[in-house]
């Protein structure tokens, strides 16, 4: 099975712009979670989607949003980018049950200048 | 609140065993996970253990769980240079579907 695929791998944006990141989960996985990873804050949970519905949400401002499509692919959008949004954004998929481990993609490195 | 703690660094000699430790606070944990992150990559699931188990072994990896002390460890036998990475432990609990993550332990291999 192919693993979790995230595109693009790298992005450079300017403060105030918006950005959309994409994630294709492992085939058959219905849950997709998004994380932000920075050296100072570690892994921070953004949100989780299951069967096209947001099931859980972390403590991020409304500028961060996401969605999931019927084929389980997910997108994450950040509007009005700030310098502090520079981070590695990780997507993880799972089968969705409570005991299902997360499988991560290689992430999208976002740099905001 | 719920918390997972790990040491930030561990330095071992090539060929020795590495033991990475993790402590957690929530006694309602169900599953505990170990992930490995190499530079520039995402997190790779190494192994996980159900909370009613004491030990799990998978080739060079041994996971030990002491539920009474809320202590989890990952032992890597015969540590190689390819084991250089950051190792994260994570806890899933009954009360919180989302994983609670440690800050990660950077494993440094000395020749």
Walkthrough of the structure:
- The complex is a heterodimer of chains A (about 110) and B (about 110).
- Chain A is built from no helices and eleven strands.
- In chain A, a hairpin with a 5-residue loop joins strand 7 and strand 8.
- Chain B has about 110 residues and is mostly beta strands.
- Chain B has no helices and eleven strands.
- In chain B, strands 2, 4, 5, 9, 10 and 11 form a six-stranded mixed beta sheet that branches.
- Classes of the chains: A mainly beta (about 110), B mainly beta (about 110).
- Chains A and B meet through strand 5 and strand 10 of A and strand 4 and strand 5 of B.
Structural class determined from secondary elements of chain B: mainly beta
* Low-confidence parts of chain A: none
Biggest interchain interface, per-side counts: A-B, 21 and 20 residues
* Oligomeric nature of the chains: heterodimer
Low-confidence stretches of chain B: none
H/E series of chain B, N to C? EEEEEEEEEEE
Mean pLDDT level of chain B: 93
Please, how many helices of chain B? 0
> Could you tell me the radius of gyration of chain B in angstroms?
13 Å
Question: What is this entry, summarized?
Answer:
The complex is a heterodimer of chains A (113) and B (111). By secondary structure, chain A is mostly beta strands.
Q: What's the SSE blueprint?
A:
The complex is a heterodimer of chains A (about 110) and B (about 110).
Chain A: E1 5-7, E2 10-13, E3 19-24, E4 31-38, E5 42-50, E6 53-57, E7 64-68, E8 74-78, E9 87-94, E10 103-104, E11 108-112
Chain B: E1 4-6, E2 9-13, E3 18-24, E4 29-37, E5 43-50, E6 55-58, E7 61-66, E8 71-76, E9 85-93, E10 100-101, E11 105-110
Parallel strand pairs in B: 2-11
Antiparallel strand pairs in B: 1-3, 3-8, 4-5, 4-9, 6-7, 7-8, 9-10, 9-11
């Amino acid at each position: 099975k192919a693993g979790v695929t995230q595109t693009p791998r790298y992005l450079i944006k300017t403060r105030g712009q918006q950005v959309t990141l994409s994630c294709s989960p492992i085939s058959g996985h219905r849950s997709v979670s998004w994380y932000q990873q920075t050296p100072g804050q570690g892994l921070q949970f953004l949100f989780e989607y299951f069967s096209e519905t947001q099931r859980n949400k972390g403590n991020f401002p409304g500028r961060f949003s996401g969605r999931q499509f019927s084929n389980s692919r997910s997108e994450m959008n950040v509007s009005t980018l700030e310098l502090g949004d520079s981070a590695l954004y990780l997507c993880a998929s799972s089968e969705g049950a409570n005991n299902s481990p997360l499988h991560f993609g290689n992430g999208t490195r976002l740099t905001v200048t | 609140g719920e918390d997972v703690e790990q040491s930030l660094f561990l330095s071992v000699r090539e060929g020795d065993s590495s033991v990475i430790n993790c402590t957690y606070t929530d006694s309602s944990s169900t599953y505990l996970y170990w992930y490995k992150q190499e530079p520039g990559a995402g997190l790779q699931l190494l192994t996980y253990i159900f909370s009613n188990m004491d030990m799990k072994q998978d080739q060079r990896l041994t996971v030990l769980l002491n539920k009474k002390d809320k202590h989890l460890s990952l032992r890597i036998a015969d540590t190689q240079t390819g084991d250089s990475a950051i190792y994260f432990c994570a806890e899933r609990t009954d009360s919180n579907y989302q994983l609670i993550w440690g800050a990660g332990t950077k494993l440094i291999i000395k020749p």
